[in-house]
């Protein structure tokens, strides 16, 4: 039986950064005047530099809203930038925050590698860095103080287990030909959701399941639509779609329908996130199951920011807790979805 819980969390970490985003959009969501550089202690107002990935998906929109609202609620000055899914923009934004001497830097890394140089600059400037949502690969763990976000490998495993249930409910017999829509190349959720799913496949379904096509749709609806159309041309017998997020699944549904097939019936669909549009599609029978990934990280992040600014020790890793949803639960859950 699939469990269904509404999120929450638990863990921490930090590091460094700064810079001005040449192409990234930057704004100051300050709730008043700033005492940036004060270090946040002694009742002084905290300045947080937040370098966001982009605005590629419904999940990201909800995450940005959560961060902005929580910063306002906490009374921090927020310097926010949107890197438009480009690592160079995020690095520039981090450098800008270092130059502006913010108290804490938080960012959700577009990809896992290539951060050491800029994070060393932040460390030299004594600005703690918190990773949110996505992790990085580094040879020096002291470059960040905390990481708050989901366990993406577990999400991939849960997607695999969910597919077992969905195939059984559909009474599916015969080969399982899976198309995989991957997230942004090199991003933690793309690498790890693929890894967790493959673990289940290799351990339990080596002979009957096969990923016949797999390509990135960059976590966007347009990407999912375009890549799914190409998948269907290359192999019209695909009977399962595993999409690394709802937006790509929603784009893919358009291509499946355009090809004269029924999403959720001719092609069973599992995706990740649990945004409202995904739930709508699930309640219409077009998506068969969704593994939830919680974007509402703002309030917990602000608690960490305060501790880091005050020089307190923070938890190294905080994992969000999420649920899994099948079609029969979608209608009931829809009205209470928060994002
Ligand atoms: O890092 C989280 C992922 O990024 C979400 O699952 C996806 O929708 C977003 O683009």
TrEMBL record:
Calcium in keyword set: no
UniProt GO cellular component terms: cell envelope
Annotated spans, Disordered: 25-45
PROSITE patterns, per database record: PROKAR_LIPOPROTEIN, TAT
Periplasmic binding protein domain span: 54-312
Record field: transmembrane: none
Localization of this protein: Cell envelope
Keyword Signal part of the UniProt annotation: yes
SUPFAM superfamilies, sorted: Periplasmic binding protein-like I
UniProt-recorded Gene Ontology molecular function terms: carbohydrate binding
Gene3D superfamilies named among the record's database cross-references: 3.40.50.2300
Record-given protein name: ABC transporter substrate-binding protein
Biological source species: Streptomyces apricus
